[in-house]
Amino acid sequence: MTMSTLNPDGSIHSIAMWYGFLEGCIGIESKAKAQKVMNLRRNPNLTVLVEDGETYETLRGVTLIGKAEIIDDPDRMFELGISVFDRYMAPYTEEMKGAVEMMLHKRVVVKLNVERTISWDHRKLGGGY
Predict the structure, then answer these.
(1) How far apart are CA 25 and CA 114, in angstroms?
(2) How is the chain split into domains, by residue range?
């Protein structure tokens, strides 16, 4: 997923991120002092892009636009931590609790509250592009 925020000078800061789900919304975990988090503390506008496809006729994706909520509550953060761990590392079990806690150390969670969705799917073009 590509995550985009606004830098202080108005330029766009885009970065690839792992993501999970928190309370039915897309969420990421990041160092509390990362540029993207500093940008969101100043301006909560957030856009994310998830895309797939190898060739033009197989491209598809979704852009989610909304406001970021920065979360430092350990219980809510842990929910997102489990989701990220489960998606990218291994199925979560209680034995993994320490690894997830370590992953979230000195971090915050950013939850995207979506206001607008844009999607596309070139597979529906039927070769008539």
Answers:
(1) 8
(2) 2-122
Secondary structure letter of residue 126 according to DSSP: T
**pTM for this prediction:** 0.88
pLDDT in tens, 35-94: 999 999 999 999 999 999 999 999 999 999 999 999 999 989 999 999 998 999 888 889
Q: Output DSSP code: residue 104.
A: T
HSE-CB for 16 with a 13 A CA cutoff: 1
Please name the fold of domain 2-122: Pnp Oxidase; Chain A (2.30.110)
What Cα–Cα distance (Å) separates residue 52 from each residue in 4, 34, 55, 78, 127?
A: 18, 27, 9, 28, 17
User: Is it the case that residue 128 has pLDDT exceeding 80?
Assistant: no
Cβ contacts of 59 within 8 Å, gap of 6 or more: 51, 52, 53, 120, 121, 122
